[in-house]
Amino acid sequence: MIDEINYFPKRDRFQKKKKPEDDWNELKKKRARQDARKKV
User: CA 3 to CA 19: how far, in whole Å?
Assistant: First the structure.
Protein backbone atom coordinates (compact mmCIF):
# COMPACT_ATOMS: atom_id res chain seq x y z
CA MET A 1 0.00 0.00 0.00
CA ILE A 2 1.29 3.49 -0.81
CA ASP A 3 2.01 5.91 1.97
CA GLU A 4 -0.69 8.47 1.22
CA ILE A 5 0.95 11.21 3.26
CA ASN A 6 3.98 11.05 0.99
CA TYR A 7 2.13 10.24 -2.20
CA PHE A 8 -0.41 13.04 -2.45
CA PRO A 9 1.89 16.06 -2.08
CA LYS A 10 4.10 14.64 -4.84
CA ARG A 11 1.14 14.13 -7.12
CA ASP A 12 -0.13 17.67 -6.49
CA ARG A 13 3.29 19.13 -7.21
CA PHE A 14 3.47 17.15 -10.45
CA GLN A 15 0.03 18.36 -11.57
CA LYS A 16 0.80 21.99 -10.74
CA LYS A 17 3.99 21.83 -12.80
CA LYS A 18 2.03 21.34 -16.02
CA LYS A 19 -0.31 24.20 -16.79
CA PRO A 20 -3.24 23.54 -19.14
CA GLU A 21 -2.06 26.45 -21.31
CA ASP A 22 1.31 24.75 -21.75
CA ASP A 23 -0.43 21.57 -22.92
CA TRP A 24 -2.56 23.60 -25.31
CA ASN A 25 0.46 25.39 -26.76
CA GLU A 26 2.28 22.09 -27.23
CA LEU A 27 -0.77 20.68 -28.99
CA LYS A 28 -0.97 23.68 -31.32
CA LYS A 29 2.74 23.39 -32.13
CA LYS A 30 2.30 19.71 -32.95
CA ARG A 31 -0.67 20.43 -35.19
CA ALA A 32 1.24 23.21 -36.96
CA ARG A 33 4.17 20.86 -37.62
CA GLN A 34 1.83 18.17 -38.95
CA ASP A 35 0.05 20.66 -41.23
CA ALA A 36 3.39 21.94 -42.54
CA ARG A 37 4.42 18.38 -43.33
CA LYS A 38 1.18 17.70 -45.22
CA LYS A 39 1.55 20.83 -47.38
CA VAL A 40 5.08 19.92 -48.50
Answer: 26
